[in-house]
Amino acid sequence: MSTPAQAAREDWRQRIYQPSGQVDPLDQPLSLTAPRNVRTRSGAGHVTLEWDPVDGAIGYLVHRAVGAGDFSTVKQPDVDVPQVPSPRYVDTALQPGEPVRYIIAAVAGMDVAGPFCAPVAAAAATGRAGAPARVAVTVHADRITRELPRPWRPVIGSEHLSYALSRGTTGGRPIGAELTAALRTVHEEIRVGAVRAHAILCDDLGVYREVDGEPVHDFSGVDKVYDNILSCGLRPVVELGFMPHDLASDPSRTVFGYQAIISPPKDYGRWSDLVHALTRHLVDRYGHEEVRDNWAFEVWNEANLEVFWSGTPEEFFRLYDVTAAAVKAVDPGLRVGGPSSAANGWVNELLDHIGTSGAALDFVSSHTYGNAPLDWRPVLERHGRRGTPVWWTEWGPTPTHFHGIGDGPFGATFLLHGMKSAAGRIEALAHWVASDHFEELGPPPALFHGGFGLLTVGNLRKPRYWALTLAERLGEQELAVDAVGDLGGVETWAAWHPDGRIGILVWNGTLNHAQADGDPVLSRRVDVEVAGLDGAEYRVTHHRIDHQHSNIRAVWRRMAGGTWPDDAQWEELARADTLDEYEPEQLCTGEVSFDLPMPGVSFLELTPGS
Questions:
Q1: Cβ neighbour number for residue 492 with a 10 Å cutoff
Q2: Average pLDDT of 342-346?
Q3: pTM over 0.85
């Protein structure tokens, strides 16, 4: 028999992606062609597909058929958007030698797809026993491609920020102090600039009540929240939601354990007044230039899901118009955006709507999980909004609470794949969230419980935290990279520092959840050559993330850990919470070779001089 908590989680899994209503299709006709020049390359444990880009596409849908079977979408459990953003897909969910066929279609929205290409056939190769397939990587130290984009820096997610003021405990650890420390850590070590969270208008902060039928505003609780965030060096992305009880048209409609109200307002004029008053208060308290230049306002959260919005699409678009106008009435220079939607939803629809309503839109925001984010730039251009920033204000390995897929090294390779994919085409890719101090469906039941955080309760660093740390350690100028051989899921990112150091990230990953714990046939022998060093000698350090390195979950499992550590175990875990060297520092003239398991990450840093 399931516990009440387990039943609540299963109900959440069933409800989370139920849309809140139907919206009209695109107002503008769009013709997509089928992908052309589809190529397949079979390797040890994988088939890699590549094709020519399709004009107007934001991504591509890949279908696979095994043998003579029917085609079905290639996707993973709990992945909300199966489409991939670029004309390349590596399929590792295969039996070696088994014949498969693929068809591919371009997409221009979540319900806008072009025709499929003709089927192409392939079969994954069988790896050679005892000898991993080889990959040769050449980093061109003399070929700078651009300033290195860092899409992880602008913003990160968090549990509602009043939780950082909590005096309670989870697993014997102080909630508020540790959540605050986690936010300070991601700012100081990964250089994240802002934090986004739900529920700034919820009743625990007392922002709105009605006395004798008249509205009363009180922002003293908001002040405590934002004072705390600014003390960490962060600024807020102010997500304007959820609905105060006394302003809700139906206060019985709630979400989360803290009963956030998801109803439209009973009075849009009073909602507008509340947003305007809050915005004016923030500008007055924290400074006009500070809020204009460093803060942003986002309208609601995932209104395209019925679990977060009990109204109709039309009511949400009205809410967007009213909210954006209220913010801009304080200062037209303040940034406001949306739709802050789940699974890429309602982006086309909001753009169509504001094309008629004239509402302001300074950035487009949406959410996706389990895949690299799609590329909305063609849609923005089609709507005459080329250059509008795209912010993915929630993103991570899974949207499902207590899933667990992201706690090990799979999460590290997933994050690097997504960040590199986003680099240069997306302004912000916000990992959801910084800390496992998170109570949407109740407090964490154990140290490793499948939490969304980069850091555990106790602020131990998970492998995906170390992945972002290593990405941040890359240099300022991105370097050209060539790679040949049986690549599979091997990717490389390299950059140069002004002092002559060169950082090289090489990782080996997959999107296939069933292989999250590894698959020997996908391991690779990697030969890295740094060209353009003119024979100079460099010191090389080599850090590693895999099942045996920089993996605090594995340490806890080796300790035969139970639900929560005792005091001695906390101390032992703290000592083991390190970014591990894979091999001792060595001297080289630009050539390094190593075995790289899947999932696994290697970071090489070359420093001039002996």
A1: 21
A2: 95
A3: yes
